[in-house]
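dumping this here before i forget
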Amino acid sequence: MVLVDADLITYRAGFGSKGDFLLAVDITDSWLMEFEDRFGKDMRVFLSGPTNFRNSVATLQPYKGNRNPLHKPVHYKAIREYMINFWKAEVTDGIEADDIIGLTYGSDTIIASIDKDLKQLPNSTHYDFVKKEVFFIDEEEAWFNFYLQLLTGDLSDNIPGQRNPSKSHHKNPPNFTKNTATKFLSMTGNQLEAVKDVFRTNHGKNWEKVFDEIATLLWIQRKDRVTHNLL
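structure:
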């Protein structure tokens, strides 16, 4: 079964068509038909609904608060309605499309997405529909990707990253980048404890609260473990 992250398709088809609705439909159809042709007709298409539990979790910074609500394709709603009506897209309630994919995936599924967040799902098979590549994420790589996000945050979702303690001699220590976080994690044995140490250094007695909030915002829900529970 193919599990489709249709939020990304909505934006890429919408902006790629430059305001031409029929072209947006053609782009949407071309991707979804490609998934069917390549992996079989068994497919579920997911769209994020208007409610999201993360909005009430975020206290450090508003979740996705840095996004311009007007920065959407001209036919954003129409493209979504098209996928709902013609491709039987399922709209989530209280969680995001990523989460329902996490709750649904298994050994017999392929995740059609280019979203880095889904790379934290252990033992998952993915299809990058832009690069046309199929790849597998094992458990070790999945946890590494999640720890990486804990250090770097997520700029697109307005989730703050962490200052790099090794740069503490700086007047304003820089935050971890993907490269520095990768190097940091690769040089440590217990990656989770190393990440916790970063939070302890950066946030003192409040580190657990900050860690729990950021981890909850980043964590993709899944059948075997709905919450992260890493403390």
